[in-house]
Amino acid sequence: TSFSTPKKKKRDDGMREHVTGCARSEGYYKIDKKDKLKYLNNSRAFAEEPPADTQVRSPECQVRSEQRRLLSSFTGSCDSDLLKFNQLKFRKKKLKFCKSHIHDWGLFAMEPIAADEMVIEYVGQNIRQVIADMREKRYEDEGIGSSYMFRVDHDTIIDATKCGNFARFINHSCNPNCYAKVITVESQKKIVIYSKQHISVNEEITYDYKFPIEDVKIPCLCGSENCRGTLN
């Protein structure tokens, strides 16, 4: 038995009239080209101007937004430290590492650096004292003689042995041209190397490790006039 399907009518607003009262029960039907063009023309007018919150920001706007975010989240240091760290983040100093006359590898400046400037951030993994002791023994077993651990405070140590940047190549000197300083950015402590004096091109960057005094001495090879002879 065949039943004649009633012809589907359109309403005054252009939408198709559903005979059964439910669009799901009537299956799929094509849209006329006129209705489709009418819909596309209406939607194109809204798409020409995207909303303000979805607009793509230019790189300059993103940089300014990042600077404002750092400014609002920077605590524990003066405004000059904020500006210098902000500048260091977006314009890093030109540095290189090569063989040093002090010890093994060293970090050298490839551009003039003025006094009291942020040179580089000491980057690594933040670990606890217990983990640092375990890793120190493991590194000795692996034959890694140099230590790339930098203490931030009583509980936190930065380990740059296998995850760090060029800052780990900076050698010790009893008469250094840089110094290390702990600053707080976004509630996180960071170690930044500052310049004590003007640093010329191809001059090696050094700072005082300030190792604690121990019975087993580590010889110092900095060669400065006021060399203490040992690092600890």
UniProtKB/TrEMBL annotation:
<dbReference type="GO" id="GO:0003723">
    <property type="term" value="F:RNA binding"/>
</dbReference>
<dbReference type="InterPro" id="IPR001214">
    <property type="entry name" value="SET_dom"/>
</dbReference>
<keyword id="KW-0808">Transferase</keyword>
<dbReference type="InterPro" id="IPR003616">
    <property type="entry name" value="Post-SET_dom"/>
</dbReference>
<feature type="domain" description="Post-SET">
    <location>
        <begin position="216"/>
        <end position="232"/>
    </location>
</feature>
<dbReference type="InterPro" id="IPR024657">
    <property type="entry name" value="COMPASS_Set1_N-SET"/>
</dbReference>
<keyword id="KW-0489">Methyltransferase</keyword>
<keyword id="KW-0694">RNA-binding</keyword>
<dbReference type="InterPro" id="IPR046341">
    <property type="entry name" value="SET_dom_sf"/>
</dbReference>
<dbReference type="Pfam" id="PF11764">
    <property type="entry name" value="N-SET"/>
</dbReference>
<dbReference type="InterPro" id="IPR037841">
    <property type="entry name" value="SET_SETD1A/B"/>
</dbReference>
<protein>
    <submittedName>
        <fullName>SET1B methyltransferase</fullName>
    </submittedName>
</protein>
<dbReference type="GO" id="GO:0032259">
    <property type="term" value="P:methylation"/>
</dbReference>
<dbReference type="GO" id="GO:0042800">
    <property type="term" value="F:histone H3K4 methyltransferase activity"/>
</dbReference>
<keyword id="KW-0156">Chromatin regulator</keyword>
<keyword id="KW-0539">Nucleus</keyword>
<keyword id="KW-0949">S-adenosyl-L-methionine</keyword>
<dbReference type="Pfam" id="PF00856">
    <property type="entry name" value="SET"/>
</dbReference>
<keyword id="KW-0804">Transcription</keyword>
<feature type="domain" description="SET">
    <location>
        <begin position="93"/>
        <end position="210"/>
    </location>
</feature>
<keyword id="KW-0805">Transcription regulation</keyword>
<dbReference type="InterPro" id="IPR044570">
    <property type="entry name" value="Set1-like"/>
</dbReference>
<dbReference type="GO" id="GO:0048188">
    <property type="term" value="C:Set1C/COMPASS complex"/>
</dbReference>
